[in-house]
Structures are given as structure tokens and as C-alpha cells.
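Posted in: Protein Modeling Q&A

I'm a second-year student putting together a small comparison for a lab meeting, and my supervisor asked me to include a predicted structure for DCN1-like protein. I've never done this before, so apologies if this is the wrong subforum. The sequence is pasted below exactly as I got it from our records. If anyone can share the C-alpha cell output, I'd also love a short note on what stands out.
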Amino acid sequence: MPPRKKRRPSAGDDMSAKKSRQDSVFRKHETSQIREEETFSSKRCLEWFYEYAGCDDVVGPEGMEKFCEDIGVEPENVVMLVLAWKLDAQSMGYFTLQEWLRGMGSLQCDSTERLRNSLDYLRSVLNDSTSFKLIYRYAFDFAREKDQRSLDLNTAKCMLGLLLGKTWPLFPVFNQFLEQSKYKVINKDQWCNVLEFSRTINLDLSNYDEDGAWPVLLDEFVEWYKERQMS
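Accepted answer (user: helix_wrangler)
Welcome! Here is the predicted structure, written out as C-alpha cells:
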């Protein structure tokens, strides 16, 4: 058989090849742009920090107020506690430069918009029981005065309300008990046991072992609550 003649490229083929090359270049440029937008920038994160810190190396109460306003979250919202935990912030109402860069870097957030987009993720962290326990323990040290070993009662009630108010049905009565009790402070052992109590003890307290290793605070709460139920 005679060899087939090679078809001469037509003008349409040239246009098609040219368009294909243009599409390829455009896709590369588009991918490059997306990659650039997705890349965390330490420089951008630093500039973002100083929007709230001013000339200092720490975001204080005023800057924190503006920061909360910008991300659309009330300062008392539990998501702010989760964010503080992610930053490993040491003092309530303050973010240091080091805490900010390390924490926002781990979250890959270098702008208000990026953090706003991460708020649902931060809220979802509370649904993981292991992470919740870590945040709960962190909250005690975060909220206490640094020269005190215990948490004053009013602060403890606020933090307990923030962490357990919506998930522990007995919280309102426990809160009432604290208000009328002799306690002025809550120590860390009591704090940690309240979480354990809320997770393991039935709402009717039927499985509470008075001879167990619970702190006296919880023995007194159980006794007080049962007396109320009988009266």
C-alpha cells in the first residue's frame, strides 16, 4: 500500500493549538494565584497584629475589643476561649506577639477574613471530648489571677457557664448552689472534678458514690440538691 500523505495543518489547527497553549498558560497563572492567596504570610500576620497592638508587642483590652468587633464575635463568646487556647495565651484579655504569631500560624490565619472563615472550625473543636477537656483545664489557669492558686467564685461561675451552661442540664442548680454556698474560691481539683461529675453522674444523681474520691464541694452539692428535691 502506498504511504499515506501527511495532512497539512489547516488554519483551524493553528488556532486550536494556540488556544490550547493560552489555556495552559492561563491555568498555570490561575493556579499560581490561588497558591499565592492560600499561602500563609508571616509578614501579613505581623501587620495584622499591629493593627490591634499599636506600638506595643501585646494586644491589650482596647485592641482586643476592636479585634472582637472586626471578627464579629462577642468577647464573652466561648469561641474566644478556644482561640485563646489555640494561641496558648497566658492572660485573659491579652495576646502577646509571640502567642499571636505561633497560634495564628498554626491556624494558617493572617487576616480578619481568614479568621472569620475559621470560626466554625474553632467552635467544632468543642465537640471533641478530648479537646474540650484540654480547653476546660486551660480555662482555669487562663482565668485566674496569676498570683492566686485558685479561681475566685464569680469568675469560676462565669467560666463554668461558658463551658457547661448549654450542655450540662444540672448547671443552673449547681450555679445556685455555688451562690448560696460558703465557698469564695474554686481550686483546680474542684474545677476538674466538676467536669468529671457533669460527664459521669446521672441527672437524678442515682449513681453518685458518696464514699468515692469526689471533693467535699460535690458531696455538699449532692446533699443540698437532694434536700431540695424532697422539700
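A couple of things worth pointing out for your meeting: The longest strand covers residues 58-59. The radius of gyration is 28 Å.
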